[in-house]
């Protein structure tokens, strides 16, 4: 369990984290989401005691991370896959970590096998591809068999096989009852990996929810209906208490009635339908809507087509 309480971090005039409170419970994968610059990495560094909070506190299984004598046995973390001394072999790197944390040497070969690096164990980590470096970082996180695991953007730069492998690994670690916390700015990735979501923007909490909860809160569900007798249908639906608006292409945008109810009313009145489709806001759209005001950098309007260009 990770408990973040009123956390604040200021760097000079920049407030990177601004009164953040949330909980990461065991037994599930919790995604930490937010646009670039939202304060995710800063928060993760404070969880690991690599940065001191300006205010507030954070505990891991009830104690500050820095209070643990053998921290790798409590929390395994991958913050920056490239932060491995390049001259060492993968095996030596892990061996050094194991010895300094009182972890049996036999764990080194175990975790190298688990992440698929057994055949590269004696190669210099400095020559590793990004995917291999990510795997080595994950091996280091798993080394102490810790109950809490934390990963900053673990799928960055990985090929689809690597992404699928990490997803399965994270889910199995959570299924074993561990606390799994990972950051990403990609909602699509989180939707497939996380159960719970902590969404931040400009250092503040925007939502602490589940993937299904976020979808259910969408609030913009409607039914799109097209008919050659759209005017009659719109009047009929309004008489039955539905709200009807027009899309630019002439389709009706109906709220307050299900697709089944609309179809039933139209059939009873002999009105033919050309299209009847329930519309749900996607997780990605919902996320964009929530973080719209929090994005630090946002693209401007699309570049207009040159005038007089052929269509
Ligand atoms: N050491 C530092 N000194 C000054 N400002 C910093 C420092 N570290 C982070 N910041 C600033 O704090 C804010 C939050 O940065 P942080 O890296 O935590 O965000 P993030 O959510 O991890 O972003 P990204 O998705 O781009 O990695 C940013 O405005 C960043 O410029």
TrEMBL record:
Keywords: ATP-binding, Nucleotide-binding, Transport. It comes from the Bacteria. CDD domains: ABC_BcrA_bacitracin_resist (cd03268). Residues 2-227 form the ABC transporter domain. PANTHER family: ABC TRANSPORTER, ATP-BINDING PROTEIN (PTHR43335). Belongs to the ABC transporter superfamily. This is ABC transporter ATP-binding protein. It comes from Actinomadura violacea. The lineage of its organism: Bacteria, Bacillati, Actinomycetota, Actinomycetes, Streptosporangiales.
């Amino acid at each position: 369990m990770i408990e973040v309480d009123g956390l604040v971090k200021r760097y000079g005039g920049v407030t990177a984290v601004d009164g953040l409170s949330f909980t990461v419970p065991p037994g599930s994968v919790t995604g930490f989401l937010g646009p670039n610059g939202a304060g995710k990495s800063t928060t993760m560094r404070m969880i690991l005691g690599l940065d001191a909070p300006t205010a507030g506190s954070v505990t891991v299984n009830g104690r500050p991370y820095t209070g643990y004598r053998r921290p790798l046995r409590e929390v395994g973390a991958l913050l920056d896959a490239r932060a491995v001394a390049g001259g060492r072999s993968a095996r030596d790197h892990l061996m050094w970590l194991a010895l300094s944390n009182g972890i049996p040497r036999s764990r080194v070969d175990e975790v190298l096998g688990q992440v698929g690096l057994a055949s590269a164990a004696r190669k210099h980590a400095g020559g590793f591809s990004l995917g291999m470096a990510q795997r080595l970082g994950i091996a280091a996180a798993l080394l102490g068999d810790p109950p809490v695991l934390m990963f900053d953007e673990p799928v960055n730069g990985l090929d689809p096989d690597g992404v699928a492998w990490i997803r399965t690994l994270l889910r199995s670690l959570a299924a074993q009852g561990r606390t799994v916390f990972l950051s990403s700015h990609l909602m699509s990735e989180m939707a497939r990996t996380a159960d719970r979501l902590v969404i931040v923007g400009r250092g503040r909490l925007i939502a602490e929810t589940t993937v299904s909860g976020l979808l259910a809160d969408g609030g913009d569900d409607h039914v799109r209906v097209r008919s050659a007798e759209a005017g009659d249908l719109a009047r009929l639906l309004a008489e039955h208490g539905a709200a009807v608006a027009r899309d630019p292409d002439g389709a009706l945008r109906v709220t307050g009635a299900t697709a089944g109810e609309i179809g039933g009313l139209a059939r009873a009145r002999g009105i033919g339908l050309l299209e009847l489709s329930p519309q749900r806001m996607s997780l990605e759209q919902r996320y964009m809507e929530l973080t719209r005001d929090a994005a630090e950098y946002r693209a401007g309007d699309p570049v207009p087509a040159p005038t007089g260009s052929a269509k």
